[in-house]
User: Which sequence fits this backbone?
């Protein structure tokens, strides 16, 4: 049998001290073009190969000089074989570049491992989360003390009480409430979850909603109906709302069904009404709601400064703001916005300057979704990201059409 140096499918590389490049079979045209520096020709030749032939090129690349491998990586990138390019880069120890290419190829778990080797645990955690390896993601988020991301992973892992504890520590009342809603009726700590939800709603001035929630929870089982702690809380809420004369009998007979506030829009309903979120599935929308933070803006405060970089989405819950053409005294007033209105949704997608000046005309309570939080949400919710970008581009195209007619 002939030795490797005598094989007809190898030709010498100039200046490589007699080393030879693989040149046999259909891949010959790829290697010839690589040798000659004809990148476009090499790309087209590589694209014309079958999957098996492309695999052979990758295997053969282990035996070529570093310069040829580097050139081949460029060819693979341009041919959109991101997975192949990532393999070559990993072999060279370029884990950061390889991780980004694994993500482009959709190989999220491989990307996560590469990010870890590259010393970027935050990016590794996000890739693990996107790839469904939630326990691995949670472990990394814990090590990074990324508590918001921890809470989100715990929610997706169906560990709502743990998620609620994290949200409570962060002071995110509405996110804590949403997490507690996930505690099933048969859970041994269901009573604790119900009482905490009632307390949160009561603190937010939503005592009637708390009463409705408690009444429903007491119908979940015979034990819940007879639970003395739930009975006492039920009676307290009835008294607080003026629906009871204070006797246990009146508390038991009173029902808030006729006054259910389910049709009253709240922060969740306002978020749901924003057009670019119009195709989000229920769980994706709930996750986005948990990302939002409630903020209070004092009266006569600049909310958005014209020309400044957008800070994200703001959804008004209470109070009003004035929208004007600029900050000066000669600026033209454009609009007055109140509860249910939203500002800054474009800055979630595009990092550009704000086109108008917005100032609060009263104390404002609002939900804020920062650009950074939203970008993380998109990175970990691929289906939601696709729907959001599709609606965003559709709305943008419609605006362009209107302006051009």
Assistant:
């Amino acid at each position: 049998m002939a030795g490797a140096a005598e094989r007809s499918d190898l030709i010498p590389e100039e200046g490589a001290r007699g080393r030879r490049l693989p040149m046999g079979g259909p891949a010959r045209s790829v290697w010839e073009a690589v040798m000659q520096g004809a990148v476009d020709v090499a790309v087209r030749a590589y694209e014309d190969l079958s999957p098996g032939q492309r695999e052979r090129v990758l295997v053969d690349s282990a035996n070529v000089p570093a310069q040829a491998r580097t050139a081949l990586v460029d060819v693979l990138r341009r041919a959109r074989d991101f997975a192949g390019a990532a393999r070559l880069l990993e072999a060279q120890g370029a884990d950061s570049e390889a991780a980004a290419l694994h993500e482009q190829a959709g190989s999220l778990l491989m990307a996560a491992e590469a990010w870890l080797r590259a010393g970027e645990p935050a990016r590794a955690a996000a890739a693990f989360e996107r790839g469904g390896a939630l326990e691995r993601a949670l472990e990394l988020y814990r090590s990074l003390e990324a508590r918001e991301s921890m809470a989100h992973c715990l929610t997706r892992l169906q560990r709502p009480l743990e998620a609620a504890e994290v949200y409570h520590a962060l002071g995110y009342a509405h996110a804590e409430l949403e997490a507690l809603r996930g505690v099933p009726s048969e859970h041994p700590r269901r009573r604790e979850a119900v009482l905490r939800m009632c307390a949160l709603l009561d603190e937010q001035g939503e005592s009637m909603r708390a009463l409705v929630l408690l009444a429903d929870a007491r119908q979940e089982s015979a034990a819940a109906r007879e639970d003395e702690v739930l009975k006492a809380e039920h009676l307290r809420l009835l008294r607080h709302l003026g629906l009871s004369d204070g006797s246990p009998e009146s508390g038991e007979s009173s029902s808030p069904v006729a006054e259910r506030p389910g049709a009253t829009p709240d922060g969740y309903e306002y978020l749901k009404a924003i057009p670019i979120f119009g195709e989000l599935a229920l769980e994706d929308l709930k996750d986005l709601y948990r990302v939002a933070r409630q903020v209070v803006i004092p009266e006569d405060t600049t909310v958005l400064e014209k020309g400044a970089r957008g800070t994200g989405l703001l959804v008004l819950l209470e109070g009003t703001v004035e929208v004007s053409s600029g900050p000066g005294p000669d600026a033209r007033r454009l609009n007055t916005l109140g509860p249910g209105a939203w500002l800054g949704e474009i800055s979630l997608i595009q990092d550009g300057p704000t086109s108008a000046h917005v100032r609060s005309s009263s104390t404002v309570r609002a939900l804020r979704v920062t650009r950074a939080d939203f970008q993380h949400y998109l990175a970990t919710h691929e289906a939601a990201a696709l729907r959001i970008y599709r609606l965003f581009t559709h709305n943008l195209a419609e605006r362009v059409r209107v302006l051009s007619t």
